[in-house]
Amino acid sequence: MYNTLVKPLLFNLDAERAHHLVFDNLRRAARVPGTRALLRALYDYQHPGLEHEVFGLKFPNPVGLAAGFDKNAALTDELATLGFGFVEIGTVTPRPQPGNPTPRLFRLPQDEALVNRMGFNNDGAAVVAARLARRRNRQLIIGGNIGKNKDTPNERAADDYVACFDALAEVVDYFVVNVSSPNTPNLRQLQEKEPLIKLLQQVQERNLSRATPRPLLLKIAPDLTDSQLDDILEIARETKLSGLVATNTTISRAGLSTDTSYVASLGAGGLSGRPLRARATEVIRYLHQKSDGALPIIGSGGIHSAADAQEKLAAGASLIQLYTGFIYEGPSLVKRINQQLVASR
């Protein structure tokens, strides 16, 4: 039904407008008695063989929703009915910000891809924290993806990440430090070795001072070289990270089927979806092999099928996340992946 009816209707709308329409309708539908149970019956799939314990947390299944879909933690209870093993909210910044001017989200249907330059639009850490404190479903594992405000200079970036950590520490189960989005000016400069170590050390110092520290992960770009990936592994060891998220969106436009002039007309932004699959898997495999499998990896990028999910897991990912594949394939993708993972054991 999604591919034959819902998707064509949504794809006739502006991409960001369609996103908000889905949000609003899912929220309204969930208020109708019996709807949540119906959604679980349609999309949730539970099996003991799917349970994963990673960085001290027990996940009911390895399929999560990537950051960027529910930036403001506005829909976690509703998303819990769709079969996800975990949901990562954000990216959240200390202060609310509107993000980049619209339009800022574009589809490339020929490539089953998206281009976005959202720019960390979100309600701010205090509002998101209050919203998470009120959520009904306390079983769903929530990750908090955190970033800096656009107008915060890089030399003060650590202050923003620590502020987000402090605001969310009681309401999320793990944290992801996002320095790899291409849509905040100069943010990716923080991936360089020296500034990244300093930033992560400050966040980790605050984290380890808590009675119950949270797993702290780093989200990296797919555009890093092998030597930069080696640096990331060294940084992860030095700052005692719990894991990595590989990968964020790419600034590359190589190998697209969509007309190059149209792609160029869209302007800057991160590319996600099928074109990212191979490179994301390559990065996961490299990190897994170089770390001898000692560092858990959440694999993200181009997962549009159960086979894509298995590829990421075989490459060394402990968990996986969907975003663009979820938009192109619909909510049944989560169930299909989990069923196939059980069937292939």
TrEMBL record:
Its EC number is 1.3.5.2. Substrate binds at residues 71, 116-120, 178, 183, 248-249. CDD domains: DHOD_2_like (cd04738). It is a peripheral membrane protein. Its cofactor is FMN. Pfam families: DHO_dh. Belongs to the dihydroorotate dehydrogenase family. Type 2 subfamily. This is Dihydroorotate dehydrogenase (quinone). It comes from Hymenobacter frigidus. The gene is pyrD.
